[in-house]
Each structure stands twice: as C-alpha cells, then as structure tokens.
Amino acid sequence: MNSKRGFASDNNSGIHPRILKAVERANTGHWMAYGDDPFTASAIKVFEKHFGNDLDVYFVFTGTGANVLGLRAVTASFESIMCTEIAHLNVDECGAPENITGCKLKTVPTKDGKMSTRDVEPFLAEFGNEHHTQPRVVSITQATELGTVYRPDEIKKIAIFAHENGLLLHMDGARISNAAAFLNMRFREFTRDAGVDILSFGGTKNGMMIGEAVIFFNKNLSQKFKYIRKQGMQLASKMRFISVQFEEFLSGDLWLQNARHANKMARLLAREIKNIPECKITQKVESNSVFVIIPRQYLDKILKKYFFYIWNENGPVIRLMTSFDTREGDIDNFIDTVKKAVKN
Question: Which domains can be identified in the chain, with CATH numbers?
Fold first, then answer.
C-alpha cells in the first residue's frame, strides 16, 4: 500500500516516534483501569505545571468528545452557545453539540475566523425572554479554523465581557500548540490567565496517536463531569495509553518542537505559493494552515496528484495543512505540481 504525503490535514500525519515509545513504556505489567494508574496521575501533574494548580483535567478520546462534553457540563438544554459560523462545533461535529447538550448554537459570520464582543453583544437581548434560548457560553477556537491566532488581549476582552454578563468562555484548542508556538507564549498566558473557563486541549493533530483533554479552570464547573464523561462514552478503560502520551508530549518541549516545525513549513509553503501569480493567499499564515485561491482550471489538474479540501467553492479557496513531519521536499514536490498545472 502506497502512502502519499500531502497537505490535506494534520490528522493524516503519523505518530511521533517518542509518542510511540511512551505508549510502549506504559505497555508493561498490569495497572488499574479508568485512570487510577500512575501514568494518568503523572500526566495531570504535567498539566498543572503548564496551567497551575487547582484545576481539573479529564482525558477523552476525541476532540469532538472534549468539546461537546466540556460544554455539556456547564449548560442546560434551554441555553445557547455562541461561536463563529465556521467553528468546528458548528460545521464539523455532525450536530453533536446540539444533540448532546440540547443547546442551540448561535453563530456569527467572520472574515478571519475570530469573534469579538461586538459579535456576542446582540445575543444578550435574549436574556429573560422565555421564547428564546438563554445565552450561556462563548466558544472560540485557538488557532482558528482559518489558521489565525487570537492574541491574549483579544481573549481577555471576550472573557471580561462574558463574565460581566454571566457567560462562560470555552476554548477549542485542537491546535493550541500551534497557537502557542506562533505567540511564543506559555499556554497559561492566553488561556487561564486570559479568562478562559473551559479548555479542550488537543494533541492528536500535533504528533500524538489519540487523545484530548478537557480542562476546567474552575472546579465548581466540573463537579459532575466524571459522570458526563462516562455517559458520553469517553471514559477510556486503559486510560494510561492516552495519559502517557500527554506526559511525554508536555513534560519537555516535544509539543513545541512539533508545532514550530509545522508552522515553519506552513510559512515556507505560503512563501512558495506567493511566487505563483495565478495563486492568491487569502488569510494570514499564523499557524499550520494555508488558505489559497487556485483557479478551477488549474485546481482539477492538481487534484489528480494531491488530495486536499476545497474550503470555499467561490474562488475556489483550498486549505493546505502542514504537520510535524512535513518535509521541505514535500513542499518542493507540491509546488512543482502547481507550477506545471498553471503552465500547461
């Protein structure tokens, strides 16, 4: 079976060798199930080093599980969750947030993937109206679905506004390592210290095999989460194989090495694409994604050799993702294919 290295998704990449070795390290002897093992305890300690004490960390299988169950823990079915119209919550989770939480997603348009207090403010008029769902959570994505990155002051403004109006702030951090690498900041600086209440922390897109984490910075919000996780089918029996990955991922700078490399490759890819007059970059390249317009007559030729996702048929705009294991040669080969397509 032949494997084609490309730019369709960072989910398509492999597992970092150090992560595989960590899983092998946990694969000795017998250990208590469901997280009552030393690997899970150690992984939680590592999270505390990054984010501080007095928090709750729960491991789950998937990013969708982290987002949906984290939100389920803090909402009632008559409440609403505000996010951008392109948020993973709204577009790519098959209706799971609304199905599982019972909440209504209220979406706002965005040009750069970000939302602001101006986007949230109109929904406040629904408070107290029994005919409308009641605003409860603002959910932002870091890095965004368009690859852009919120600065800490942008997050703080949203958090302050949310808290002043009785709302919570959730962050979908599927690519949080790429955001941290771009900002050159510690995770805590643009999450907990910026006012985030609930964080979905991703590792799968940055070299891990499987596993995400749900972090509650206010333990009062997580009192029932262990039951919600079990009912939501996200409680791993052999949890140590998820936990040990996070232990390896976060104990040193593996997360940062991987993210920096992926971001660097995205910048290189964008720089090469900009040299092709027929192509146009549509978003700032701040993490590991590149959004580019390639005319349809050229795009169809490229798709014969490389698979990637068409983000918007108007243009059309395509999304190219780099990974921790992207090589400069991969970029050279892709750019060569694009150049041949526009030339012939």
Answer: 17-251 (3.40.640.10), 254-343 (3.90.1150.10)
